[in-house]
Amino acid sequence: MFGLEWLRVRTDARGLLEHARGGLPLLEEGYTTDDNARALLYLALLPPGARDPALVRTYLAFLLYMQRQDGRFRNGLSPEGRFEDEGEAEDPTGRAILALAAASLGLDPDLRETARFALERALGVAERLCAPRAQAYALLGLLALREEPFRELAHLLGRRLRQAFAQAEASWPFPGPLTYANHRPLEALWAYARAFGDGEALGLVRRAQGLLDRVYFSGEGAPFFDPVGNAFMSPGEAKPLFDQQPIEAKAAVSFYLRVGERPKAELAFLWFHGRNRLGVPLVDAFGPMDGLTPEGPNRNRGAEALLSYLLAWQALVQGPFPREEAP
Question: Does position 161 have pLDDT exceeding 80, yes or no?
Answer without folding.
Answer: yes
